[in-house]
Amino acid sequence: MSLDVDAGHRTRTLPSNQRRHARPPGPRRLLSWLDLRAAPYFFVSPYFVLFAIFGIFPLIFTLWVSLHDWQLAGDKTFIGLENYTELLADDKFWNSVVNTVGIFVIATVPQLVLALLLASALNKRLRGRLVLRLSVLAPLITSVVAVAVVFTQLYGRDYGLVNWLLGLFGVEPIHWQNAAWTSWIAIATMVDWRWTGYNAIIYLAAMQTIPKDLYEAAAIDGASPRRQFWGITVPLLKPTIIFTVIVSTIGGFTLFAEPVMFGSGLMTGGTTGQFQTVAMFIVKEGFRDFQYGYAAAAAWILFLLILISALINFALVRGIGRSR
Amino acid sequence: MMNNTRRGRLLAAVAVGALALSAAACGSDEPPATGAATGAASAPAEKVEITLQTFGGGENFAYDEAVKTWNAANPNVQVKYVNLTDRFEDTYLPQVLQWLEAGSGAGDIIAMDEGAMGLMSARPQYFADLAQYGLDSRKADFPEYKWNTGVNKDGKLYALGTDIGGMAMCYRTDLFKQAGLPTGRDDVSKLWPDWNAYLETGKKFKAALPKVGFVDGANTVYNSVLAQEAGKNGGQVYFDQNQTLIVDKNPGVKAAFDYVATLSQAGLTAKLRSWTEEWNTAMQKGGFATMGCPSWMLGVISGTSGDANKGNWDVAAVPGGSGNWGGSWLMVPSQSKHPKEAAEVLNFLTGKEGHIAAFKEGGNFPSSIPAQQDPAVADAKNAYFNDAPSGPIFAASVAQLSPVFFGEKHAQVKAAVEEVLVGADQGSVKWADAWTRFVEEGVKAAG
Description:
The structure holds 2 protein chains of 2 kinds. Chain A is mainly alpha-helical. Helices cover 72% and strands 2% of the residues of chain A. Chain A has a two-stranded antiparallel ribbon. Chain B is built from 19 helices and 9 strands. Chain B has helices spanning 7-22, 64-73, 88-102, 117-121, 144-149, 173-178, 185-191, 195-208, 219-232, 251-265, 277-285, 297-305, 339-349, 352-362, 369-373, 375-378, 390-399, 410-426, 431-446; strands at 48-55, 77-85, 109-113, 159-164, 168-172, 213-215, 288-293, 313-317, 327-331. Chain B has 2 domains: 7-165 and 327-373, Periplasmic binding protein-like II (D-Maltodextrin-Binding Protein, domain 2), CATH 3.40.190.10; 168-324 and 402-446, Periplasmic binding protein-like II (D-Maltodextrin-Binding Protein, domain 2, 3-Layer(aba) Sandwich). Chain B is an alpha/beta fold. In chain B, the strands form 2 sheets. A 5-stranded mixed beta sheet of chain B has the order 2-1-3-9-4. In chain B, strands 6-7-5-8 form a 4-stranded mixed beta sheet.
């Protein structure tokens, strides 16, 4: 914590033996100690107090609830880890995990690659660069529900634009909600439409911190632009890429609004749960079926899944650029 | 009240219609109803405030006028009418359950949708016994179905009915004409005295207009058949009175399932799920010809189909004559500090006067029989539907309605099994596997 360093620095400027003798005795000494040692903690405490109330407490309380058969306005019995064992054997839960991972992969991989290419294009000298840069951010400031509503209409079975376009090529109308892969594609496009520009802007900002002389030196050595991109840009963007991958992982694993809107506001995610994500599963168990304990256990498993997959992704991404 | 967020739009539409037609019936010379306690509230020593909590969009429970009338007549018992949210299932119900569990926060009177009545019946500890305040004398005012649902598992009366959905069959006169079928509502009602005749009519319709669905989808037909079949099977649906799941054993459930399967496999459905954009668009563009219509659905149709389709829709009787979808109840939580006064207010709101006021204000069809017989309701016509006599049609559909027992997990099982029906209709589940899956999902949902 930077705070510790700062406090330590201030105290350390005084020679230690002098400090010991110069300290006035009694309450003043206590006050001065408080001023030096405790005050910084006091000043940063609002964040940590709020974090404790809205972060740590719910986390611990959820853990506590997850160890019970906890019915809303009903019985509560301590059952230990039974919710977890039941959950790990629940097809529906694993179905939602598979859906979440599936949508995450087909949404995030193209999204980040596209964002990287987009950023690289925007980093060039272009006419109306500012307008272009701002316009890639526009999807981000639209409401996610509005995006989902519009896309859901585009993907409509009987009167949707996408099916009309496909119909021009003789393709039979697709009921996008009906099969897993069609619904995943539809949801992935919603996610990508909204988040590609955001990631592109982050990459762009990082690209602009790369010193120009590196490119000049590379150009003098005869490196092609492609080579420069993979040899200079990507390795130097690595911390930024790691950041976006972790943020996308968290976002992807908690995906909720898009599939809910795509499924007409229901938590079931299609008639056979084709696109029910883990977040939807949790809400369905907790707030439709009123099984709080079971939902809490699912929330904890989701937390662990995010942690694990963020670590895996971190390990994977850390490797990029190394071989080149 | 129907448990749906689109209530706002439908109520707005219903309200316009209802206000227009009941304007003539608005008079203050109406004698006070026997059951209603307008002036009869015993005066408590000090002023008490009764909080009334409801849900729903638009006019929601439409109690503004009724509350005004009560408050004017009872200066010592003032009602505060709070509509908490337009969302029942995902907002109102979880919130109310949390308040009941916490022992504070719930109003002195709370409203509850049909879908949660099984859950509430199984939790008698949270509600006041209304018989203590003499409300058991109201039995004759309600259809048996409505009354019995307000009696909890201990046999105590804890809730009285507000509105009721009833069931009719809405149909497109323009499509019927194209298909060479009669278009007048009496002739159309004669086409389908029972569900078999309805199926046969559908086949004729499909032969003439193969691209148009005869019915929108699986849900309404399933529920209408089920409501009638449940009566033949001891008033049980998914649970018996011991809360044992009987989804696989109840012949009524199987009969309703089989009927939908036949209808769907004959290609008579438009394969639509209610409350989706596709469904709305099909309603506007004539994508299907008939749809099961509870009273509040008239507002959904007129609001969705718009002025361009005025006169294209009409209302006939439902096959088999009875049915219901939706409706609500009022109850007094035992955490209320003034249960006696709350019960008096509840008695007034669910009495003839309260029901009629809500019908005039929001179009909510009364479950109270004296209110149904009042000219304000009995003579009600719906202009959008070619002046169909909506009052008598819906009153008839609930008069013979058999009482149904709702299990504690009725809503969850209902949602889970209907999902399979929709899936089979739309093709994500094979009909050959559908019944097995239907039962499996029901068992899982029952936990």
